């Protein structure tokens, strides 16, 4: 971590700390106080309690005599701790939001949000939980980074300073490759057991359960855990550089990869039947871990889960997207069934007198609007109205034919009737024929 700290001090830190002077320092300068306080007794002796104003003045001079941050050099452990805390917090903040946001919008299948076990406003809750964990998580990891900067770890700067560096040739580079592979193997083995121990009921309820709140996780769930839980799973990464030599740039790259991998395996993807699923513990394996809790504890590889009987191979039937698609298909079938079994209600009919007999006409558009408002389409309504009009026309024609036959029958019977009787309305045509 001394590499990012060096660039921070070079471009930001020196100017920042120069501006962070003690605002009470001028009180100490005016009084000429140069006292330093090594213990509680000297501090108590410097406070004048003869009066209230004297006590306020003495306390002000004491505070003013405290060195400001501008007096801290680059080698000060206080300044290094403050700088490393800020660098770590800003770094994890930027990495989390940049990579998790990209993965959420570019890789994560948003249909998963319709899964019955996907929580309401889950993404917002995951982000809020992560932001709550960052401050304490960075504080817990700070001693490891301070030790790195102060030379207490086995990190080395150049090839010549590392193993086999003085011999030259290919050996130093081969060791760098070996250190990277050993780092992944060592941390994966340690995290397997840390993760599995966190599932012991006593620890699970107090530390690890908040992370398993996300049954169907999104990339934003990668850092949504209890800060102590996150710290315990990060300890193997910090231990590695204290146990065997690692190049500083190699360690920064590996540490960044760790965080990227943690985000990557939380996208709920379930790619199955590929040749690496028996060797690499990817998103499909970790999705199964969130679904079933007792399998696939590893971080990168599957060998530890296989060796200790906790491996579960991803299968298409385990994919939570299958349940989502089945639910959507069931909902679609129910909607189609409701439409197919809907009762068609014809428009209301009423009878009118046209002079030639009773005819039937369909209800007016204003009164039939209630039936269209019941959920039927306008195309079906127009078809029904047309069929009703045709039926009404046929019925009217039949009634007119019956009326005509009745008139003809009356004309035949009319000569036999008494001429003094006024002919009825149905024999109107016969009367007109008689006048002619």
From TrEMBL:
Region annotation Disordered: residue ranges? Answer: 333-436
> What is the protein name given in its UniProt record?
C-5 sterol desaturase
Q: Which UniProt keywords apply?
A: Membrane, Transmembrane, Transmembrane helix
Which Pfam family name is an example for this entry?
FA_hydroxylase
Location of the Fatty acid hydroxylase domain? 181-309
Annotated signal peptide:
none
Q: Where is the composition biased (Basic and acidic residues)?
A: 382-398, 427-436
Swiss-Prot/TrEMBL GO biological process terms? lipid biosynthetic process
Q: Where in the cell is it found?
A: Membrane
Q: Which residues cross the membrane?
A: 82-107, 127-146, 173-194, 249-266
Query: Cross-referenced InterPro entries, in alphabetical order?
Result: Fatty_acid_hydroxylase (IPR006694), Sterol_Desaturase_Related (IPR050307)
Q: Which organism is it from?
A: Rhodotorula mucilaginosa
Bias (Low complexity) ranges: 354-381, 405-414
Keyword Transmembrane set for record? yes
Output the lineage of the source organism: Eukaryota, Fungi, Dikarya, Basidiomycota, Pucciniomycotina
What is any one of the record's Gene Ontology cellular component terms? Answer: membrane
């Amino acid at each position: 971590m001394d590499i990012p700290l060096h660039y921070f001090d070079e471009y930001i830190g020196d100017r920042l700390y120069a501006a962070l002077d003690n605002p009470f320092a001028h009180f100490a300068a005016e009084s000429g106080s140069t006292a330093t306080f090594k213990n509680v007794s000297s501090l108590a002796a410097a406070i004048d309690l003869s009066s209230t104003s004297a006590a306020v003045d003495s306390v002000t001079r004491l505070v003013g005599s405290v060195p400001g941050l501008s007096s801290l050099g680059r080698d000060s452990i206080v300044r290094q701790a403050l700088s490393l805390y800020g660098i770590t917090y800003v770094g994890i903040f930027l990495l989390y939001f940049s990579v998790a946001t990209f993965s959420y919008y570019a890789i994560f299948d948003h249909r998963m949000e319709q899964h019955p076990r996907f929580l309401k406003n889950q993404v917002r809750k995951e982000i809020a939980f992560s932001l709550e964990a960052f401050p304490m998580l960075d504080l817990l990891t700070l001693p490891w980074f301070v030790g790195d900067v102060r030379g207490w770890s086995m990190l080395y700067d150049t090839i010549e300073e590392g193993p086999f560096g003085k011999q030259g040739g290919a050996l130093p580079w081969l060791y760098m490759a070996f250190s990277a592979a050993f780092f992944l193997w060592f941390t994966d083995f340690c995290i397997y057991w840390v993760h599995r121990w966190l599932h012991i009921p006593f620890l699970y309820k107090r530390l690890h359960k908040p992370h398993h709140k996300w049954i169907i996780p999104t990339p934003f769930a990668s850092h949504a855990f209890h800060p102590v839980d996150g710290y315990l799973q990060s300890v193997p990464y910090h231990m590695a550089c204290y146990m065997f030599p690692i190049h500083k740039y190699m360690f920064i790259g590996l540490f960044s990869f760790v965080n990227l991998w943690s985000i990557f395996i939380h996208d709920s993807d379930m790619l199955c039947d590929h040749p690496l699923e028996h060797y690499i513990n990817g998103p499909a394996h970790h999705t199964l871990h969130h679904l079933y809790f007792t399998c696939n504890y590893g971080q990168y590889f599957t060998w530890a889960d296989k060796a200790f009987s906790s491996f579960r191979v991803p299968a298409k039937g385990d994919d939570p997207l299958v349940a989502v698609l089945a639910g959507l298909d069931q909902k679609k079938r129910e909607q189609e069934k409701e439409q197919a079994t809907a009762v068609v209600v014809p428009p209301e009919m009423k009878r009118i007198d046209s002079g030639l007999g009773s005819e039937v006409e369909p209800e007016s558009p204003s009164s039939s609007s209630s039936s269209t408002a019941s959920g039927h389409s306008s195309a079906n309504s127009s078809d029904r109205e047309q069929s009703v009009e045709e039926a009404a026309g046929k019925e009217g024609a039949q009634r007119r034919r019956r009326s005509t036959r009745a008139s003809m029958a009356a004309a035949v019977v009319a000569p036999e009737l008494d001429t003094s009787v006024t002919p009825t309305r149905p024999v109107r045509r016969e009367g007109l024929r008689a006048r002619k």
